[in-house]
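[scheduler] slot 2 assigned
[scheduler] job type: sequence-to-structure, two independent chains
[scheduler] chain ordering preserved from manifest
[runner] begin chain α
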Amino acid sequence: MAAFASNFSQDFDITWGSDRVRILNNGELLIMSLVKDSGSAFQSKDEYLFGKISVQLKLVPGNSAGTVTSYYLTSKGSTWDEIDFEFLGNLSGDPYTVHTNVITGGEGDREQQFHLWFDPTADFHTYSILWNPHVIIFYVDGTPIRQFKNLDSTKVPFPKRLPMRILSSIWNADEWATRGGLIKTDWTKAPFTASYRNFSLQACIWPSGAYPCNSNSWLAKELDAPSLERLMWVQKHYMIYNYCIDTKRFPQGLPLECAATT
């Protein structure tokens, strides 16, 4: 079946740091905090095989260096699949880094990173993941910033068999998150707080078969020509790291998908 869920009280569980999570406005707003002892996290009650997931998120303001706010899909097991949005904090006035990754069969190393064309701490902005049998697309305020295509014909693995849950967390990662770990978390600024609202979900609830909602248009959606132009604009002006051009990291040759995907 297809789900259209947007209530944090009914559709999600707090998985850790429950004393640092507040759900307000009849389940429409969730606020998570990080303190020195621990962060906090929540996950969806259901698992999904394909979906279009969106949330409006306002990130940690001020000096957020060392903190990571994550929003992602993941399956279980040692050969898991995962689709990541991670937001790496920074010193006051310096831009956030949006870190994206696609993990298949427990293997990732497919990072692309971006700066944003707005201040993500000043107001809520919409971050979306479209995951269907053909492509994974990351969106910011409806603008595509990255796509990862199903290239099974070239033996590039694509997440299409394992159901995933939606997870989100805020945590301390100052050993690597800001300038490679050079800038540490300033705990005098704690608690660090991120806010979520308007979670919308059009997804195939598992277990209902591989294609339980095949009448939904997003199951066949791919980027059209105008959307590809916007994607290329973002990548030209705001991409700061692309694994597909990192020849030092892959001296034996770039991953196969780099020759065929953006």
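[runner] end chain α
[runner] begin chain β
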Amino acid sequence: MHPTIPKTQTAAIVASSGAAIQVKHDHPVKTQAELAPDLHAALGDWPIPPKSPLIGGHEGVGEIVAIGNHTTDSPVKVGDRVGIKWLAGSCLNCEQCRKGREQNCVEAKLSGYTVDGTFSEYVVSFVRHVTPIPKGLDSNAAASILCAGVTVFRALKYSQTTEGDWVVLPGAGGGLGHLAIQYAKDMGLRVIAIDSGAEKKKLCHDLGADVWIDFKTSQDVVADVKKATDGLGAHSAIVTTASSTGYTQAVDYLRCGGTLMVVGLPGKANLEASIFFTVFKSISILGSYVGNRQDAIEAIDIAARGRVKCHFELRKIDDLQKIYEDMTKGAISGRVVVNFSK
């Protein structure tokens, strides 16, 4: 073990599903992986149960301080700055991994869900799954790209759109949505941002959204989308919200041949859509689940070149319970980054 690694650390612990977050300043530092996303892990509202007790956090950036003695041909070295993603590890040898769907590996290890995550000063991860962070890209900004950014980037990649097409982004002012606006504009797409509130409206316009729709004041969201797209509807919708309403509306406002990208993960909601109009309009409905290692490298590269910037608020680890409460209320614009140096 590296001589500078302490025996204890500060970490945010969820003792069991649904329990309150506890910040401990004397939690043991692990030096090997134990095989056994943050808000959902804490609430326990997903159909796949999380590990407990659990250190949350599924996107983080830090410096490698040690590599296991028996690791061979490591692509990274001590001193490298790397990022940890939701997908902490996979077998890299099964059909899903070979086809670029590492996140669907049956042996996938999920940060802050099935293995301890990044809400700690030290974390164990896997050398072939960490993502190198380019020089010049701020660690705080890079952290949110590793899950939120990668997730929306991949969804846009597979949205079957081309330059000049219209894409609708429900929840555009949130953590995933504000990054989706920027990746969409970088791809040459025209963006319809759906969200609510003056602060989020300003953020979406500042990021380049072409059209803003406030779902709380709109009389008819579907009609507003069609009005903005010459009556034809949008080419694609990237739905990142945790509400089933966003999915139901999308089939109605998509044009013929449109693509609904299902991204948000509400724990118990069902996807309801008119079978008749899904078929009649030749609508494609595709699930898009985070991203693979290459998606992460591409998403980080775009951010490193200044074409995507994460808007975040820096907070302390002791504020984590309040952060979760604000997330539940939908009261956060952009992202919140927990910095252990604060």
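[runner] end chain β
[qc] chain β: The mean pLDDT is 87.
[scheduler] slot 2 released
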